[in-house]
């Protein structure tokens, strides 16, 4: 751990504040008198030059007194250190006053270095505080640090109470295996430090720290600490940097969890430990060999993968070679000098404290490196370490000497720049060196320690020639390294996350200890050996860096940077080539003696703090980003080994009281929060794009968020969800969630392919959403000026024109603008979809789509349902064809019908098909137009009427969904996607509708349909995210249509004033009404089934990709009895003219919904006592609370159970059945049969007529 000069300024008391009760003296007057005017940049340069000696001298006086204190802890030296600290702080204050007086415009200086120097010199630290507050803060700091240094506890089962943390307790924790004895030392230390440093004292100290931070313009102390991590890029904030750290931890945590699971598995094989640890549980903290569970290296002997392989703990070999503390540091110096770096100075060797003093003095044994601030040409750099002859201490010696080397390299910089690029750099340098030092080859071949390894290991090409580079010894070596490196991360992030919360004032005093353990349990997967819930306990104080107020993030960062530095030096030394398969593996790289590696390191270190830290990182690694990839590369062989071992033993990464508890906690808390946030972000970006299709920024954001969201789901699945063996769990809800979550759809694709998938999807969506065609009478028009959109212009032509040629032109033009353009992309889209399905465990996309229906017989069930309703459809088809022939003689009596846009809704033909044209046809469009204007105000009132229907049933008011955030009409200023849709933003409060509403009966009914979705969303909003969906996809579509069946009855329209009040409909009016409804509902059924039956065949390979158009026309003819109005060829892709194909949205849900809506409608009518008292088609359950309660029960279930069970629970029948729809239309079917018998027109059609309309190559 290195002394940080900047911490004197920014953190005020990291190492500064020591024992003292005296008040600080009054601040001295500035040595340079203030000027009444602002001095120039040239004068600023002179000032900085003069300031260098003053600052160095003041710093040297302070650190000299501090050195005397930490190497001789007494009340006197503590008082002297406090006085020196105070004097130094006052000196800083005087300098800051000078700067504010003379150079307050420093931020406008042109010289970057000068501006940077003033920026950090101008931060005043505790100099902003009243003298009495500084004194109180100093006193509290020194009391806490002294308590830590002098605390003693009793020996286990002994009256000897003179046992200290270092070395006695630490030695016990690392050598004793009795869990009871370990628990004693762990608990005794934590209890004692809690008494010596109670939470109230720490809070009092933090109050002063917070005041100091605010006085310096920061929100809290954590933000003030973060100043040294400012990379000076635009938009940098402390919170963004914290999020960067959190994201890095999120990437590292899965690696740690694997190691944790492996250690836990090994512990459970030890009879004394097995009762203490659940299979997926937490590891007792006292068993980890370390007071803070941040270094598990002492567990190596108990848990190493290959106990009989050669040990890589060099301690015994060092003792055999008569190593001393001095020799350990001499070897460390040699490592640096062999790389062409600086030797240690004579002052270093004469004045450092390299072992605990034997003259009875109390010392602070925490290893540290100190720069005595003498600046240019300085020779005074020292290490303080109570060194013992162990391999761990050998590593520490290199680490601390890394600080000294850094000091020496940047000592010629100005005072403020004599610091690491950021605090993590200082910590990383020595550790990067240590990674080379602890390689087996360095220990045996360079240090000549007898490690018992193959002598050939000293040959340069040993590893590149070996058939299997990864030996048992290698795995053991990587394992002990991981016990030091990987294990450190969760403690560091827990500690700093806790302090960020405390500093921010977000944690009450009585929750200090509870939150400390929540974080440690969550991140480290450990549990305390004793109850720690008392508000009087303060376990954070058991860590030195808490009581000494040392920012700890530097160590987290250093543990990432060291692997980046190490890899870069290995590459420079020619020891590692990431592009070569024959390269020595990264973990075996030893760059000792490499002048090239030394130059790379030296050039970076010389920068000190003179540039933003990302510049220094780039100088060392070629990148400005922190990355865990070198760390992953380093540990890759070990992690692969652990994966195999865990899988072979039925173990799962993660921790909790049990595997199921781990899963339940993760799914219900972590995943629930994260996935809901990602869903909201995704929906927001998609909304922004679809409501402004020409906005490239919105499109790019949507594509980026789509990829990020997919990446998140894939990462969660790969790293967490798929590891839970949920089939053995007892909680049915948890089992169901995990079963559903184990299918991640296209997110399973590799990142590159997933990006391609989303790009193709966005491209096809844009083609469809922005497609326009020219009018029939202006076929070479300027599309931008007079081009027609699908909604409303094209649909208006198709529903109102009676010109066969205009209809045929419009039909073809739309397909030319959509399907024909989509076909080249669609094949690739299908390939990627099938690949994703296979990665999810399905044969193809068909299987993945059908999984949501949870039935192996679903396809057969649909075929049966179609067989039930097909005779009704055939009657309607025959009648329609007969009637259309009177208008269009081109239609032959036994042939299929030339299709409308899609052939799935014939309601617009009602003007030709109404059985009794002289009897009024039921349509409230004109009544709607009389009541509602086509603008937003008028359309909103239509939504109010629809909303009131739901409210009348005792269901939710959905006004929020069509409020200010909704899109209810087509805007005039931008292109939008007009496909009607309901949106759930996954935050339990934001629900929206998107429509380009027209004032007519069709859209009035559509409003009810879309509000049905919203009602569903609102009812299941409190379920887990995974269950926030329809019982099956058809349920979502059915609910609104159930309402529409009631709403669209003449009876209801009369109630709400949209139709004249009549006692009842005549038989002829009833037939007309049922014909109108049937032209929507019955005509849709074959298309609703066929479009996915077609795609299923594409997905499973039954359809040759060269024959997409042929097979489409064939199936349309077979199912619908419909043919195209013009000749087609295999450049066409008529299926792509339907929104759901380019959107890759399954369509069978609509077929299912058309069956279900009548089933559910019938049961609600029975509940409302509307049926069988009157015909089913006359049922209106408006204002019936009993029907509403029955429906609400169905809606609230979401997808939390199998849909057949939900159906059984709510309507009493769990299978889909078409009986209800047949009952509903029974009078119409009877009429059609009688009419056909009377007229004698044919029924059915020729299935090969389409052949003449396809031009084959």
UniProtKB/TrEMBL annotation:
<keyword id="KW-0325">Glycoprotein</keyword>
<feature type="disulfide bond">
    <location>
        <begin position="978"/>
        <end position="996"/>
    </location>
</feature>
<dbReference type="InterPro" id="IPR001548">
    <property type="entry name" value="Peptidase_M2"/>
</dbReference>
<keyword id="KW-0482">Metalloprotease</keyword>
<feature type="signal peptide">
    <location>
        <begin position="1"/>
        <end position="20"/>
    </location>
</feature>
<dbReference type="Pfam" id="PF01401">
    <property type="entry name" value="Peptidase_M2"/>
</dbReference>
<keyword id="KW-0378">Hydrolase</keyword>
<comment type="similarity">
    <text>Belongs to the peptidase M2 family.</text>
</comment>
<keyword id="KW-1015">Disulfide bond</keyword>
<keyword id="KW-0121">Carboxypeptidase</keyword>
<keyword id="KW-0732">Signal</keyword>
<keyword id="KW-0479">Metal-binding</keyword>
<keyword id="KW-0862">Zinc</keyword>
<keyword id="KW-0645">Protease</keyword>
<protein>
    <recommendedName>
        <fullName>Angiotensin-converting enzyme</fullName>
        <ecNumber>3.4.-.-</ecNumber>
    </recommendedName>
</protein>
């Amino acid at each position: 751990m290195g002394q940080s000069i900047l911490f004197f300024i920014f953190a005020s008391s990291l190492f500064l504040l020591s024992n003292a009760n005296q008040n600080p003296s009054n601040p001295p007057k500035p040595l340079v008198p203030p000027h009444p005017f602002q001095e120039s940049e040239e004068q600023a340069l002179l000032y900085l030059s003069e300031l260098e000696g003053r600052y160095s001298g003041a710093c040297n006086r302070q650190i000299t007194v501090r050195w005397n204190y930490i190497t001789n802890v007494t009340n006197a030296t503590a008082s002297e250190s406090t006085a020196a600290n105070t004097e130094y702080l006052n000196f800083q204050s005087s300098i800051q006053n000078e700067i504010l007086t003379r150079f307050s415009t420093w931020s406008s200086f042109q010289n970057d270095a000068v501006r940077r120097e003033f920026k950090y010199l101008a931060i005043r630290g505790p100099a902003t505080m009243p003298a009495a507050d500084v004194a109180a803060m100093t006193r509290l700091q020194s009391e806490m640090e002294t308590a830590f240094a002098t605390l003693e506890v009793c020996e286990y089962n002994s009256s000897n109470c003179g046992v200290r943390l270092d070395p006695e307790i630490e030695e016990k924790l690392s050598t004793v295996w009795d869990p009871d004895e370990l628990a004693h030392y762990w608990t005794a230390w934590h209890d004692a430090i809690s008494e010596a440093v109670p939470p109230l004292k720490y809070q009092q100290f933090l109050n002063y720290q917070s005041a100091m931070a605010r006085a310096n313009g920061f929100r809290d102390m954590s933000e003030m600490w973060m100043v040294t991590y400012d990379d000076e890029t635009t938009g940098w904030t402390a919170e963004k940097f914290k999020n960067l750290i959190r994201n890095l931890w999120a990437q590292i945590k899965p690696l740690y969890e694997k190691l944790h699971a492996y250690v836990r598995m090994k512990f459970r094989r030890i009879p004394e430990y097995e009762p203490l640890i659940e299979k997926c549980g937490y590891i007792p903290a006292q068993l980890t060999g370390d007071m803070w569970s941040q270094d598990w290296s002492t567990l190596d002997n108990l848990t190493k993968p290959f106990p009989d392989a050669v040990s890589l703990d060099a301690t015994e070999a060092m003792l055999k070679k008569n190593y001393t503390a001095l020799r350990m540091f001499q070897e460390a110096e040699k490592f640096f000098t062999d790389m062409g770096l600086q030797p240690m100075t004579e002052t270093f060797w004469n004045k450092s404290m390299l072992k605990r003093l034997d003259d009875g003095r109390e010392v602070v044994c925490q290893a540290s490196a100190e720069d005595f601030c003498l600046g240019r040409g300085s020779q005074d750099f020292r290490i303080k370490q109570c060194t013992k002859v162990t391999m761990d201490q050998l590593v520490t010696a290199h680490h601390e000497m890394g600080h000294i080397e850094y000091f020496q390299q940047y000592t010629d910089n100005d005072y403020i720049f004599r610091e690491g690029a950021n605090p993590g750099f200082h910590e990383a340098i020595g550790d990067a060196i240590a990674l080379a030092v602890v390689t087996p080859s360095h220990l045996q071949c360079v240090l000549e320690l007898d490690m018992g390894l193959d002598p050939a290991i000293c040959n340069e090409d040993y590893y590149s020639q070996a058939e299997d580079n990864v030996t048992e010894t290698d795995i053991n070596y990587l394992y002990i390294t991981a016990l030091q490196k990987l294990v450190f991360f969760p403690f560091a992030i827990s500690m700093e996350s806790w302090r960020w919360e405390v500093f921010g004032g977000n944690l009450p005093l009585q929750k200090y200890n509870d939150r400390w353990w929540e974080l440690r349990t969550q991140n480290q997967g450990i549990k305390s050996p004793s109850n720690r819930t008392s508000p009087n306990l303060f376990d954070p104080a058991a860590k030195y860096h808490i009581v000494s107020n040392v920012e700890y993030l530097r160590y987290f960062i250093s543990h990432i940077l060291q692997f980046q530095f190490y890899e870069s030096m290995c590459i420079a030394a020619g020891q590692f080539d990431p592009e070569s398969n024959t390269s020595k593996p990264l973990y075996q790289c030893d760059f000792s003696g490499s002048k090239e590696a030394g130059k790379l390191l030296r050039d970076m270190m010389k920068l000190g703090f003179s540039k933003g830290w990302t510049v220094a990182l780039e100088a060392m690694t070629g990148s400005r980003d922190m990355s865990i990839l070198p760390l992953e590369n380093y540990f890759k062989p070990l992690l692969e080994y652990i994966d195999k071992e865990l899988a072979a033993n039925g173990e799962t990464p993660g921790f909790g009281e049990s595997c199921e508890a781990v899963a339940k906690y993760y799914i219900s808390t972590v995943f629930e929060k994260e996935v809901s946030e990602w869903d909201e972000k995704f929906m927001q970006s998609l909304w922004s794009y679809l409501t402004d299709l020409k906005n490239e920024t919105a499109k790019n954001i949507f594509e980026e968020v789509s990829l990020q969201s997919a990446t998140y789901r894939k990462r969660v699945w790969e790293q967490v969800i798929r590891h839970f063996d949920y089939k053995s769990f007892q909680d049915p809800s948890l089992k169901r969630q995990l079963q559903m979550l184990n299918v991640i759809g296209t997110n399973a694709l590799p990142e590159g392919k997933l990006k391609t998938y989303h790009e193709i999807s966005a491209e096809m969506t844009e083609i469809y959403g922005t497609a326009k065609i020219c009018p029939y009478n202006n076929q070479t028009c300027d599309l931008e000026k007079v081009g027609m959109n699908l909604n409303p212009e094209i649909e208006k032509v198709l529903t109102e024109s009676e010109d066969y040629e205009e209809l045929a032109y419009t039909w073809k033009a739309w397909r030319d603008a959509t399907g024909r353009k989509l076909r080249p992309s669609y094949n690739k889209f299908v390939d990627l979809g099938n690949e994703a399905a296979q990665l999810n465990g399905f044969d193809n996309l068909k299987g993945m789509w059908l999984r949501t229906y949870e039935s192996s017989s679903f396809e057969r069930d649909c075929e049966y349902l179609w067989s039930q309703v097909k005779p009704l459809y055939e009657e309607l088809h025959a009648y329609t064809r007969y009637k259309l022939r009177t208008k269009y003689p081109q239609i032959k009596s036994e042939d299929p019908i030339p299709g409308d846009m899609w052939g799935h809704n014939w309601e617009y033909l009602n003007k030709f098909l109404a059985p009794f044209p002289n009897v009024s046809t039921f349509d409230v469009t004109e009544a709607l137009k009389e009541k509602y204007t086509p603008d937003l105000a008028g359309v909103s009132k239509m939504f109010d009427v629809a909303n009131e229907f739901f409210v009348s049933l005792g269901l939710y008011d959905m006004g929020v969904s069509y409020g200010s955030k909704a899109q209810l009409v087509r805007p005039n200023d931008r292109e939008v996607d007009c496909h009607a849709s309901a949106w759930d933003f996954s935050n339990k409060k934001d629900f929206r509708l998107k429509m380009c509403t027209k004032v007519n009966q069709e859209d009035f009914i559509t409003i009810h349909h879309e509000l049905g979705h919203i009602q569903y969303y609102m009812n299941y909003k409190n379920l887990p995210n995974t269950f926030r969906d329809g019982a099956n996809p058809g349920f979502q579509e059915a609910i609104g249509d159930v309402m529409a069946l009631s709403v669209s009855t003449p009876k209801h329209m009369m109630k709400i004033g949209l139709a004249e009040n009549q006692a009842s409909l005549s038989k002829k009016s009833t037939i007309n009404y049922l014909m109108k409804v049937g032209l929507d509902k019955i005509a849709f059924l074959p298309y609703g089934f066929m479009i996915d039956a077609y795609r299923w065949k594409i997905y499973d390979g039954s359809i040759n990709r060269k024959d997409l158009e042929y097979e489409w026309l064939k199936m349309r003819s077979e199912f619908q009895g419909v043919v195209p109005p013009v000749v087609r060829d295999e450049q066409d892709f008529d299926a792509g003219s339907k929104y759901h194909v380019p959107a890759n949205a399954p369509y069978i849900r609509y077929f299912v919904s058309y069956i279900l809506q009548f089933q559910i409608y019938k049961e609600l009518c029975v509940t409302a006592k509307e049926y069988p008292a009157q015909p089913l088609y006359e049922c209106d359950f408006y204002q019936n609370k009993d029907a509403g309660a029955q429906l609400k029960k169905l809606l609230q279930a979401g997808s939390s159970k199998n849909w057949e069970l939900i159906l059984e629970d709510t309507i009493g029948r769990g299978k889909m059945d078409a009986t209800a729809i047949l009952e509903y239309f029974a009078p119409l079917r009877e009429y059609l049969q009688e009419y056909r018998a009377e007229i004698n027109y044919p029924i059915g059609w020729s299935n090969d007529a389409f052949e003449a309309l396809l031009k084959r190559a």
